[in-house]
Amino acid sequence: MTLPATLNTYQLLQPFSNKEQLNANTIAIRNQFNSLLTPAAKKILDFIHTHACKYFGVCYMSKSKIAKQLELHRSTVIRACEQLESLGIIVQYETKRVNGDKRQSTNAIVFLHQLAAKEAFIENATPECDTIDTLLETPNILNNTDDTEEPSKVQNEKSLLKEGLKAKLPETLNQVLSPFFDAKEMYDLVGTIYKAKASVDKEIKIEDHTSVYYTNILSVINAWGRGKAKSLHAVMYRAIKNVTRTIWVKERAGKYFGI
């Protein structure tokens, strides 16, 4: 889908409310993807970040100009942006001029949320949350029960319940949730995820956007595990709502522009 290159489009696309949220998101990107990014991709990531402040999270500089300012080949910039997009760090939108010849204009490069809005972590900050290592060692930590009388029977029942739930879920949610949570917590989290998605557009399917949803859900779990958020569900809701909104803009907003 091609969007018109207008100020209204850039305002609609911007994923953040202020520079602080943009900065926090880029820090999260560096922490999570540093080992995967090429040197050129890191350089271009920083450049895009510094030129995404007029509309927070949106850079509309052409790849030719980016290449010229960084003294790189345009093909290098294109490949780096493709890598960033494949990792769920950015999304690129084709745009066209609305006046004159209406030819294709520069792509709008938009950052995707790696974490929920920074305010959520500040409001719910606590040093008491369990770490990811603890979660992996004790997968039932969120739903402790007294298993002393019949531990094997209780464990078997929990395993069957979890397997039954997994059979009904999209593979993306299975992969990202099952290593960390028991059946009850998975059920509750899936409910939060679907409610957040439906608040934007219930027709958008998680399996059609596997990489983006997987990355954002895992980022929230990791942040929560490091004690960055007290309410896992509140942060998850915001993150899923934000990423779904970005997907909606890319796939659905054309009707608002008559294209």
Structure in words:
This protein has 259 residues and is α+β, with helices and mostly antiparallel strands. The protein folds into two domains: 2-112, Winged helix-like DNA-binding domain superfamily/Winged helix DNA-binding domain (Arc Repressor Mutant, subunit A); 119-246, no CATH class. It has helices at 7-13, 19-33, 39-50, 63-70, 74-86, 118-123, 132-137, 151-168, 171-177, 183-201, 210-225, 232-252, 254-257, and strands at residues 2-4, 58-59, 90-96, 108-111. Strands 1-3-4-2 form a four-stranded mixed β-sheet, sandwiched between helices. It starts with a strand and ends with a helix. The model is unreliable at 116-158 (pLDDT under 50).
